[in-house]
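Q: What structure does this chain adopt?
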Amino acid sequence: MRFGLRVLGLAAVLFLLLPVAAGLTGVAGPPATDASARAAPASPAGMAVLAPVLFCLLAAAVLSWMIVRSQMSGWRLVAAVFLAYFGLGTFMLQIESVVFLPRHLPPGFVSRLFAMGAVIGLVAAPAAVWIHRRFRPSPVGGPVPSGIPSAPEEWIVRLAWLAATYVALYFLAGHFIAYRNPDVVAYYDDSNVGSFPRQMLKVWTATPWLFPLQALRGILWVACVLPFIVSFRGRPWELPLLIGCAFSVWLVMLLVPNPYMPESVRMSHLVETVSSNFVFGCIVGASFARPRPRSRFETVTTGA
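A:
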């Protein structure tokens, strides 16, 4: 009951911050170009209110879950919450806008989105910690994640295969979900060449830099939640679900109508990104929560 009320309190803070930050940074009411206005047919008016409410509730629930399962407290926890909110909810998503949407967005609009995310994060992070009474140390029950690497070479191997996993999920979801919609293909002035191998060959030929970029994004996704992974205290199965939700909850904002992306394209991207990010987050969480293999000494002494 108390946790639910705190989630509602944090959701209210986020909901109030959205229009304030949008107004301060110039995101609210940017002029749409004629082309973008024609590209985006009218959406149900109620969704413009319902979608932000849903986003605030879900984001507040996930941030609260991260906070109550973390051993951190005080300003260290505030910094971790800011990294999660701004890193996952703004930085990681707007990298895609910089790469793929420059001709669809007004000049300087992405910079204003970055500023908006930073403003909300700077206020919401300490508010979240205060709401959950975590400015002072508080005991958190549960075992420590046993899959955290203990040596630099282990970190390199872990991050390398997680980056490769993200690249695979990114392109698989893009091809088999987003590019099944002809509206998405037309929106990016692209073409669907058919099979997945042929599509990957086309991407490799035209934009080979996209592969290392997405590998870097895979590592950055992990970096944004790493403080909460290493400080997590709870049941092992919780961590994969928590990170899966943390990676995917921000995409709910694709439900919000906007003049720059048609509804059909937004809905395809919503399914594509929520599903792939959730799966990737679960894989990340499971890789750190998995049981640590017993050493030879432990095997001998226990007789197993």
